[in-house]
Amino acid sequence: MATTQRAGKKQRQTEQDGLTAVAEALGFDEETLRGLYRKMVLIRLFEDAAQRTFRQGKIGGYLHVYSGQEAVATGFLAAFQEGDRAITAYRDHAHALLLGSDPKAVMAELFGRGTGLVKGKGGSMHLFDVANGLWGGYGIVGGHIPLGVGMAYAERYWGSDAVVQLYLGDGAIHNAAYHEAANLAGLWGRDGLNPTLFILENNQYGMGTSVERATAMTDLAAKFDSYAIEHEKVDGMDLVAVLACAQRVTERVRETGKPYAVEALTYRLVAHGAGDFFEKYRTKEEVRTWRERDPIGLFEQKLLAAGVADEQGLGAIRDEAKQIVDEAVRFADESPEPPLEELHTDVYADAE
Amino acid sequence: MVQAPERSVTAQLTDDTRLDDGGMPQKSLVEAIHDTLLEEMRADDRIVTLGEDVGRRGGVFRVTAGFLEEFGEDRVLDTPLAESGIIGTAIGMALNGLRPVAEIQFLDFIHPAMDQIMNEAARIRYRSNNDFSCPMVIRAPFGGGVHGALYHSQSIEAVFVHTPGLKVVAPATPADAKGLLRAAIRDEDPVLFLEHKKMYRLIKGPVPEGDHDVPLGQARIAQDGTDATIVTYGMMVHEAQKAAAEVAQETGASIEVIDLRSLKPLDEWTIVESVKKTAKALVVTEANGLCSVASEVAALIGEAAFAYLDAPVMRVTAPDVPATPYSPPLEQAFMVDAEKIGAALRRLIAY
């Protein structure tokens, strides 16, 4: 992938200079850029389909989609290398898709089918795809943070240079598990034993409670100061900014073995859960304002302006993504339920 | 007429659980655990140990004394007082190739980590398509009788036994502490290893040298008998044997005492076969009785050996009060001991 660049004034300037300069700095060719667009569109269409089938009763329980936050995971996982790990909370479909999970298997998992990523035992919030580096989506807010920190410790214990991308939401940062784990990450990282990249996806709301109503200290990135973990913020709606930041900070963590945190300012353009039809906690005006900065729309504009793609080309990419999603839904719909024997499998290593 | 379903139990592998102690070193429980963990860490560099004061201090009960000096800070990690962090990071290490042995300083302190244990560690295999396992050991001192009162006395093992995905062991002898700790560390699933804190230095016994393994899920017949069976674990094994000796002397009854060793998996076979032989069962736990391990064992006997019983299954447990009281007489009234077990045993024999 791209050459490693240390953070410097020059590069920071490059990051601000727009698509072409960033792509050049990262060594991304035009095909790669169009591929990133395709990934974001695939996520959006996948999430749209998930919401639609949820309303049709085909997906049960709880469904939390990533619409609006695509640039964050797309940008950071572009810096993901083989052997790296990713661990996230419950808004996890995008991470699985980006890491290479088969969209059919992801959708089938949402449908609870035996062909799903984890045989229908997990569902939307609890994806797992070890082969592709997804070490789980977790349904207890904050609960996965110490796991990621422990995983990072194990990497350096064995002398690997892998990085653990640990995604957490703004709601999780007030949870005790975050504070205990961040403290340990900082402590172990002092000796180069904790290559955790904390990616704080600040979508402004922990379910229906805004950051301002959850903490008096609203600079969330600064909360990492308590644990001597360096940090920065990035515009999480702008894929180009995220790409540049992700590449730089991932390599920094890889080189130093020290944790680092990025607060990505983002916004979920849909309700917290697919079953939430009324939102009393935010205004239509606010949603509309953020929608103007839809990460997919922003990236489209940049691709067009840079001449990397034209309208027709982007349309073809959207059609292609739609086909993949349609096929995933059809596959999930036609897949069998898991056999009842699965209820009793995978409990212990030495199970009968 | 409704046919009562007979619960079937599966035979476990059995080995000779009696030790020929000729020539073996005598060790206290704490020495056996210390020595075993030390040997295991020497043999397997995947093992790390972490917890509050396990390093420089050598553990509050000195289980890891000298470990930091031998293995260094990468393998012996002094953590802050953060149980959720200790267990959660240990899970991450276990997922990623290490074999962490996490110490929770007192079982009473484990509650902040319950989310990590019950929601994450216990479920990793089930939710990950069997692609992941969580081979970790959580060591924790438990049990009362040391004037520890509210937060240094608890026996809350039933909560973990009730959690599928976990295994739970509680050795009653130094030899079993060695064998079970080796098995727990080698196990591919998370194991809670309970160490009775009153027994640490009180109980001494022969400990085999070298490879001494006690498979998880296998009870020990602490003493043979024909007239009644006592099923128990932990420190209560010793109290039960004391009671059995007194009652045997008075009545001539022959009492079998089963030391469960593993609370989960439970050695159903040994329990049921013993009760079929003796026809009378007394189940003893140091924990409070409601929904306890004793409840489960009593239910098992009812389901699998009902037709063999000559008396109702009896239980001796701590009372269902919120805590072990501090006042010595109250604590004594709370604790199960040989006297209380003996009283129940006499009623059972006379039934």
What would you note in describing this structure?
The complex is a heterodimer of chains A (352) and B (351). Chain A is α/β, with parallel strands linked by helices and 352 residues long. Chain A has one domain (2-335): Thiamin diphosphate (ThDP)-binding fold, Pyr/PP domains (Rossmann fold), CATH 3.40.50. Chain A has 13 helices and 8 strands. In chain A, the strands form 2 sheets. Chain A has a 6-stranded parallel beta sheet. In chain A, strands 5-6 form a two-stranded antiparallel ribbon. In chain A, β7 (230-235), α10 and β8 form a beta-alpha-beta unit. In chain A, α1 crosses α2, α3 (30-55) packs antiparallel against α12 and α3 packs across α13. The longest helix of chain A has 26 residues, at 30-55. The model of chain A is unreliable at 1-7 (pLDDT under 50). Chain B has 351 residues and is α/β, with parallel strands linked by helices. Chain B has 2 domains: 26-206, Rossmann fold (3-Layer(aba) Sandwich); 220-350, Rossmann fold (3-Layer(aba) Sandwich). Chain B contains 13 helices and 14 strands. Chain B has a 7-stranded mixed beta sheet with strand order 3-2-4-5-7-6-12, sandwiched between helices.
How many domains of chain B? 2
Q: How would you write the strand order of the largest sheet of chain A?
A: 2-1-3-4-8-7
Strand order of the largest sheet of chain B: 3-2-4-5-7-6-12
Mean pLDDT of chain B: 94
Query: How many alpha or pi helices of chain B?
Result: 13
Structural class call of chain A reads: alpha/beta
Number of helices of chain A: 13
